Amino acid sequence: MVGVAVGLASLMLVCAARADIVINVDQGATQPVPIAVPAFSGAAEGARISQVVIDDLQRSGLFRALDPASFPALGGDINLKPGFDGWKAVSAQGLLIGQVSLDGAGRLRADVRLWDVYAGESLIGTEFTATPANWRRVAHKIADAVYTKLTGQAGYFDTRVVFVAESGTKAKPVRRLQIMDQDGASPSYLTDAASLAFTPRFSANSQDVVYMALRPNGSTLYLMNIETGRQESLGRFPGMVFAPRFSADGRKVAFSLEKDGNTDIYVMDLASHAAARLTSDAAIDTSPSFSPNGGQMVFNSDRGGSPQLYVMNADGGGVHRISFGSGRYTTPVWSPDGKLIAFTKQEAGEFHIGVMRADGSNERLLSNSYLDEGPTWAPNSHVILFSRDTGGGARLWTIDVSGRQLAPAPYGAHASDPAWSALLP
Fold first, then answer.
1. Which alpha helices (H) appear in 116-179, and where do they start and end?
2. C-alpha–C-alpha distance, residues 371 and 367, integer Å
């Protein structure tokens, strides 16, 4: 992957006594912060970059981009203090100004500055460089910088999503792996229609994806590097294998294996391909997800009579139940910061995406629909992507941990089983 450089030496984080702009992402935003983002000046990519920044910030639900038609005139030097009275008059709390140029080597450079209009202070002054082909990544990194400065939380815009693109008919379904930027740009297929793809999962520290492929002769787990396209089978198993997921360090993969009518959880060392069985009871144990520190694993099991959530040590010991509400709990996934577990809950004819603490306390249901399922976390642990089917086919949706920011993801076709990448290098 071609990277995007950040001018850290020029990064200016002004520690004023108190910034006027305060956004609490945990509680959600009842009123999005009004921000002015004039089209970036300079090279032709400038206006496109600023528009992607606007789209990223608005889609978070925490920002409201103001109408450029109301903007006062800007000076030519983005490093000079703007006339704040004019920006106050259009109700801007934040002002993001940028200038884009191409250097002698043909590389794109974006200089940006974020101003707190009411405090009259510069909050960010930095530069980003990349090849012109990577202008969208520059935009996402700028949006991440603004989001981080104004919320105090890491951004999540310079990321990708892998998912199952669904087409065909019920009699002949087509399920192919597809990848795209988190904003829906640059979609491309990773697999063909020769097999049915299920449950792709990103490694947290590489560009590897693990998934299950179903063919007439059985199921296989595959490991794919999405940069090189190299793919390898993780071995043939004597039964149906499914629900794979990487360990936090990317060195192992946990999965479920149905053998002789019994489904248990296994873990495989990717270097040796040696697999060890972690559960051994008559129940269906599936959907394992490692804790970020690698010491534990959450999974769902019907050993108590209905699917519920359980946590065990990474070696299979210390199994204990953490969900005790009514309904059926499935597809748990640990948040990257380790504080919460997201899950799917089915109750009274409806499906929900919910979260709870790792000990099972403070359960909250964030969504409800005819069919909501398969949550995956943004790398900042504040936004969840999932699939929703209201009767016309599954689509991708997002919701934040407050439950207030619910919106369709920017991908218009049928899709399921999403997995969110870490921030790109």
1. 135-151
2. 10
188 class by beta-carbon count within 10 Å (0-12 exposed, 13-18 middle, 19+ buried): exposed
Residues 160-420: name the CATH superfamily.
Answer: TolB, C-terminal domain (2.120.10.30)
363-404 tens-digit pLDDT: 999 999 999 999 999 999 999 999 999 988 999 999 999 999
Q: Which letter, b or e, does each residue of 58-76 get, where b requires 16 or more Cβ atoms within 10 Å of its Cβ?
A: bbbbbbebbeeeebbebee
Beta strands in 229-307 (DSSP E): 231-233, 240-246, 252-259, 262-269, 275-277, 285-290, 296-301
The interaxial angle of helices 45-59 and 135-151, nearest 10 deg, is: 40
Q: What is the location of CATH 3.40.50.10070 in the chain?
A: 5-151
Element spanning 59, H or E: helix 45-59
Q: How is residue 326 annotated by DSSP?
A: S
Nearest to 18 by CA among 116, 97, 114, 89: 116
3-state helix, strand, coil in the chain (%, to 5): 10, 45, 45
Mean pLDDT score of the chain:
92
Type of residue numbered 283: A
Residue type, 162: V
| pLDDT beyond 60 at 2 | no
Number of other residues whose CB lies within 10 A of the CB of residue 271:
8
